[in-house]
Amino acid sequence: MATAKAHTNIALVKYWGKKDQDLIIPQTDSLSMTLDEFYTTTRVSFDPALTADQITVNDQPVTGDGAARITRFLDIVRQLSGRHEFAHVDSHNHVPTAAGLASSASAFAALAGAASRAAGLDLSRRDLSRLARRGSGSATRSIYGGLVEWHRGHDDASSYADPIMEKVDFGLEMLAIMVSTGRKKISSRYGMQSSVISSPYYDSWKEVVESNMATMKAAIAAHDIQAIGHTAEENALRMHALTLSADPGYTYFNSETLSAIAAVRRLREQGINCYFTMDAGPNVKVIYDRADRDRIVDGLAQTFDRDRLVVSQAGPGIEIWDENN
Prior knowledge:
This protein is of the alpha+beta class.
């Protein structure tokens, strides 16, 4: 039996599209920040008495497509380890599921860590990153803390994440505006492929990401939060332009998303450096220097209740520990 804890990450430069759906190899590189406030804890044990994998999330049994996805992932672990037993999987998500807050990133990173250790594997973090990717692309980044780059690669061996700065030693913070904790109607997986196939701007997007990656890494090296925030905001808007320009067009925004964007822009007009980003969901994340935190929270509280404003700092990488049955 083994348990792992992994944190979500929010992409500052996003990938939005896969070259290989089975191996989950992306069209572009990406770069993210691991968050300390949102995480998943998962316990796995292999049991020769089982006739099928038994999976619970937040104490509720998982069936149907969700269970099949986890079993497919466990099959990869079984193949790597030479084990054949089915597994008990008990997972607790401290982040809303499928709400654009990267729940699948922490979930599959934690599952990769716990399942591989329970199966007797002792994987390096790079190999764990490769394994987690097979469950959810963004999970490849949640193996590491701080600021993390995912190299798109071209096959299973070359597509993995590396840390850029695991201990973020300057004032970078991120605040999540909890617009909605409900499940989104369009999955990231479907939305990405729709954009890849039908947006006339997709080739331009790949050029945008290449440029943004260079700008973002330079901004991180310089501890330039304004440049980090500006680049992340423009990258997010251009990613969401791909959703609007697909056929049929779709969006992850709702009216409160637009209100949150407007609130961040008002703060900026008042001279406070803060910037927004959004993943595949309505919730808005705000990037800023922690020295401005109180003013930003006070400003956003004029539009949103304070209990919907969750402050996060750069979080840690995966933790894995063995347990006795």
